[in-house]
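Complex 260.
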Amino acid sequence: MKKGKKIYEGKAKIIYATTDKNLAIQYFKDDATAFNNQKKTTIEGKGVLNNRISEYILSNLSQIGIKNHLVKRLNMREQVIKLVEIIPIEFIIRNVATGSITKRLGIEDGTVLKEPLIEYCLKDDALGDPLISEEHINAFEWANKKEIEKIKKIILRINDFMIGMFRGINIKLIDFKLEFGRLKVNGKNEIILADEISPDTCRLWDSMTDKKLDKDRFRKDLGDLIPAYTEVAKRLGILHEQSNISAVNVTKLSSIKKRK
Ligand code: 5GP
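Predicted structure with guanosine-5'-monophosphate bound:
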């Protein structure tokens, strides 16, 4: 399998075709964007950490039977993935109210929700990923009712699993974003989890101090994003306790191919 031409470039990732028409290569960039691309920078090493963290979480989800697009990590910045037809919806799952919901509805920041809340946003940068309802999804045929019911069940299982996984390493899973795609299996569409799960797409707070260990460090100009993502990777056991990942180290690491 060889890397082919670029088929899609998003804010934080690039997807390349391969010589296998069913597979693609997902490349993790160091670019960080927020507020609908109004705030942009490059944070050296972010892509390397997200690649590792997302690989870890998606492999664990596979092990509990949650089908997803990850085939294998190729190297420090790339993974082989199954090529799917992405459903144009960002699925947001909230356990604690913070971020856009507090501004939109005037809810107090940090309010613990009595059950997980699922929100849908249309995946459209030009429109600023607007909030939509199930009725919109149905009316404009972005997904059918059966697909949404299936996705909601998968989301709740992922949320339960990830709350437990992060609780075990003293991190609170506040909220996160998921994307799903359609995979053709024997002529039928199957729904599988796609994209990435990382501190770029989740809000993760230290259980004791509420210190933010996610992309809010960039959004809110808190600094020290790489040390925070490294802390998540260390607690997950992906990086050794003693490894001190600075941006420079991560860049060096990114040039070392994964050994078999
Ligand atoms: P909020 O709606 O409060 O801005 O975000 C809710 C959760 O979804 C956060 O964990 C946030 O990181 C994630 N999220 C929502 N939209 C996006 C997006 O376009 N890109 C990324 N990386 N994460 C998003």
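The radius of gyration is 18 Å.
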